[in-house]
Design a protein that fits this description.
By secondary structure, the protein is an alpha/beta fold. Helix content is 38%, strand content 19%. The strands form two sheets. Strands 3-2-1-4-5-6 form a six-stranded parallel sheet. Strand 7 and strand 8 form a beta hairpin. Bound molecules: manganese (II) ion.
Length: 317
């Protein structure tokens, strides 16, 4: 990784135009990593980056620092060829969405990611699937290259870590905790950041609560499945983490699945597991992610059918 960080440093020195992006419908790690990366580059190399996203930014991220620096990708001239495209926290090529044109047109592409990914698309990869968040890798690059930071950057990296680890519940090792200790010593206030994200619309919280209340249970309660209808999907804010959290608290539940009817024949799947790895199940549905938190989007199938296929997929687990 050290060698690649050095090459990244050289590329940043010579690039005159830089675009930064992550996966579409960004979550806390994706958006905060993009904003922190851009701010770090401006502070340390003097280059102002273009930050783009595809899809929707959830309301709970409205109040994060530098939020207004990120723009929907279709507001940017898509024919523009950037010297450098930086792809963060993206998981897989098909999850990039519209900004993929910037990747294809860029002179050089760097990716920084912590997802399990067999087909990285960049010229230079600074990936670590053992990191709890892309923000963790960014922090390590920042320290390795002795970059200057500021209060906004420290807050953004802290939010990236807090959101992807579910406030440390999913931390795989001590790395994200020791980084957070350093960030807190640098002035980050965790309570303040968690409070700033309590910003969901009332409808969104009520839709999530109703989906949890309507969950079904299979295989002697080991598998819980909640569904969000197409009508309710429009009112969601984010990916439904709250539903997964609530159902995962039930005694005896090992696996939680959330099915979201995004369109009539497009079903989003989120899967969480208490211990056994389930990323292979997500891959079988065309998705991926992490060992105990993964997901997929199935196109060309109905909610009813995907529901059946999910129950089958957990047979014998
Ligand atoms: Mn992430």
């Amino acid at each position: 990784m050290e060698k690649n960080i050095k090459i990244f440093d050289e590329k940043l020195r010579s690039a005159k135009s830089i675009v930064v992006m992550a996966h579409k419908n960004p979550d806390g790690d994706a958006l905060c990593s993009v904003l922190a990366m851009a701010q770090l580059i401006e502070k340390n190399y003097g280059t102002r980056c273009v930050c783009v996203y595809d899809g929707n930014v959830p309301d709970y991220l409205d109040n994060i620092p530098l939020r207004n620096n990120a723009h929907c990708w279709d507001k940017v001239d898509v024919k523009k060829s950037f010297d450098l495209a930086i792809l963060l926290d993206y998981g897989a090529e098909h999850q990039v969405g519209g900004p993929l044109t910037f990747v294809q047109n860029a002179k050089y592409v760097v990716e920084i990611d912590h997802h399990i990914n067999d087909n990285p698309i960049a010229d230079l990869c600074i990936d670590d699937d053992g990191a709890d968040a892309t923000g963790v890798i960014l922090y390590r690059i920042m320290r390795n290259l002795a970059w200057r930071d500021d209060a906004d950057i420290r807050d953004l990296l802290a939010i990236a870590i807090l959101t992807d680890t579910g406030n440390f519940k999913f931390a795989h090792n001590g790395m994200s905790l020791s980084i957070m200790a350093d960030l807190v010593d640098g002035g980050v206030n965790i309570h303040h950041l968690v409070e700033l994200m309590n910003n969901k619309p009332r409808k969104a919280v009520l839709v999530e609560a109703a989906a949890a209340a309507g969950a079904e249970f299979f295989y002697r309660n080991r598998l819980a499945i909640a569904t969000i209808s197409r009508r309710d999907y429009r009112n969601m804010d984010g990916r439904g983490e709250m539903i997964l959290n609530i159902l995962g608290q039930i005694k005896g539940v090992e696996y939680v699945v959330l099915l979201k009817e995004q369109k009539e024949t497009q079903i989003g799947i989120s899967i969480r597991s208490r211990s056994v790895a389930i990323d292979k199940i997500a891959s079988a549905f065309g998705g991926g992610g992490h060992e105990r938190a993964a997901g997929a989007v199935v196109r060309g199938d109905t909610l009813e059918n995907v529901h059946k296929r999910i129950i089958d997929a957990f047979k014998g687990m």
